[in-house]
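Might I ask for a little of your time on a matter of protein folding? What I wish to show you is a protein chain and, alongside it, a tokenised description of its three-dimensional fold. I should value your view on which stretches of the chain appear to form regular backbone elements. You will find the record immediately after this paragraph:
***
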Amino acid sequence: MSLKKLKTLRRQVSLELEENLIPFWLEHVKDDGRKDFTGKMSNQLVKEPASKGLVLHARLLWTFSRLYRFYHQLQYLKLARECYGYISKHFWDQKYGGVYWSVSTDGHPEDSRKKTYAQVFFIYGLSEFYKCYPTPAILDQCTELFLQLERHAFDKDNLGYYEVCERDWAVAEDQRLSDKDMDEKKSMNTHLHILEAFTNLCSIRDDNLLKYRLTMLLEIFREKIIQPGTDHLGLFFDDAWQPRSKGISFGHEIEASWLIYEAAEVLDDRELLSRYEHISSNLAKKVFAKGLDPSGGLNYEIDEQSCLDTDKHFWVQAEAVVGFLNAYQITGQESYLDTVVSVWQFIQQYLVDKVYGEWFWKVDGKGVPDGDLPKICDWKGPYHNVRACIEVINRIDALLTQNNEQKGKYTYGQAL
């Protein structure tokens, strides 16, 4: 174990979190003119009129709840409570239950469809909020969302969950999460975040059906989403889980590598954990072999035409840091720790916006940032990079504690 690398990395990550990311979001997250949350802001910090997306708000709820649990500072709990209040008032469907995809600038329903991706992100944020503000009403709301998905979005014949329902929970004809996605009934991306949300919900709610569904999701990844012959994740599927795409998403694969392991851990089953430990490390191994750029960053994807996209997106780099550190914890292979360091150095050199703060959305293959993409929008929030920083700090602390314990045992043995 390279203690020097770990300690240096921990110090750098803490500085990034406390001197760049947190100050940025504390300053810019509120829309001062309206006293609600910023829906869109340019890279140059110009706030723009925009609808409010549930995904951004749910991620803000998760972020400030997690920051409060990490630092125990009341300013984070205050923001989490305000975010929860805004979602409950404007996004929650009082008639049919669940949350709208988006609301207008004045808080009225704009896109009232029930996209599974959004429902589970609210579960993710809500379950984290419960951990720092444990009230029965919040747990009941988590449970209701979970049961709504079970009643309406769950595919009883082929297992898994449909992508989109209408406001009244009828399965929608158009199943696209966004304009960039394929119109297919199921996707890897949505199921990855269902897995993530159910894992967090399992940590606060002891329920046999929930545990069964989490186990089922792990099996879906193992049997349906991970493609035989390549061991890469398929991206889109029909309702019977027949693959409908050929691309490879390096960011999702490295993110899945640690979220799958986390899900197996929360189920507290040694045999299950052993099985998914292998799957987790194998996903990281594939990304390590095919996705890394000589610059130190992680490339975006191999597209449907088998062309390599060498852009480096902010969320991909954030997930790479956590995923490769998780692989190092599982395998002990120093090459994974070296990769964590190199990706972090890439982030610091190219992605951190040293003029306006936070991180650029992406840089191209030469490290040139795209200044036209927003700093805040539905798909650009603090969830990936703040979470990555907290995960890295906690994981390094665990490794250092483990090393100290082993050293203590050795010294004791020598004394005997």
Notes: Residues 200 and 358 are 26 Å apart (CA to CA).
